[in-house]
Amino acid sequence: MRTTIGYLFLGSLSWAVFAVPIIPDNNFWLYQGDMAVGYKRNGLLSPDEHWPNGEVYYTIDEKFKPEHVAHIKLAMQIIQSVSCIQFLPAVEDTKNFVEIKVSLSGCWSNVGFLGGKQTLSLPDQGVDEGCFRLGTIQHELLHTLGFLHQQSSPDRDDYVQIAWENIQPDNISNFQKYNSSRVGNFGATYDYGSIMHYSVSAFKKSAGLDTIKPLQSLNGRRMGQRNRMSDADITRLNNMYKCNNQTEMPNVTAKAIEEKTDPPMETTQS
């Protein structure tokens, strides 16, 4: 299948993304590695891009094995347990839903509520391997809910320095900064420990190089962790969807993931 190369401008020139391939079947750009972004979409600050009433209807590809389905549903349960979000199975006449499907091209998701059918894509890997780690599934579900990557937030230059010279040339666009007219922090400060943050060496050219350098103390946090949502992630989600504030992971949920110590993904980063 031939890939079309084009240009995307969102909000302002600081949001320009160059030579990013369009996914030919649905006219979406695969931006920053795992976000399929429509070229006519508005900013995620808009309530129109939030799922109505916090209800996300979904289908799960029948090609997934039962253990994969259980892992996807556990990730959903974790998000539900700390917010007012509800993941609900789509039925035959459901018009707006996310199709969680088996992918041959890694893990990625449409961002925010689009209306109609949209996609969250996961590879057919072993449970807790690669993109099928519990934290990575949560990461992609948060994209579906409207989250973007933390290290590209408008205020990131106060918190991190991007080592452009250490980034793989084909992945420079993954480190573009968002425009403040399009995205917001929803009451949460910049968070090195966010499940939406890249690791210090994401998309590095070679071993031993860092691509993101913190400008402040990490205070024990690990950039690029894919174990669980941080307190700031939970605050941001609850504020985005106007939930009652919930800022701690319930014990029943924490127990399910407390032993997971997955290392951050480095060469490729969701």
From TrEMBL:
Organism ancestry: Eukaryota, Metazoa, Ecdysozoa, Arthropoda, Hexapoda
Domain (Peptidase M12A): residue spans on this chain: 42-244
Biological process, per Gene Ontology: proteolysis
UniProt-listed Enzyme Commission number(s): 3.4.24.-
The name this protein goes by in its record: Metalloendopeptidase
PANTHER family to which the protein is assigned, alphabetical: DISCOIDIN, CUB, EGF, LAMININ , AND ZINC METALLOPROTEASE DOMAIN CONTAINING, MEPRIN A SUBUNIT BETA
Active site residues according to the UniProt entry: E140
GO molecular function: metalloendopeptidase activity; zinc ion binding
Keywords: Hydrolase, Metal-binding, Metalloprotease, Protease, Signal, Zinc
SMART domains: ZnMc (SM00235)
Annotated residues for binding of Zn(2+): H139, H143, H149
Species of origin: Drosophila virilis
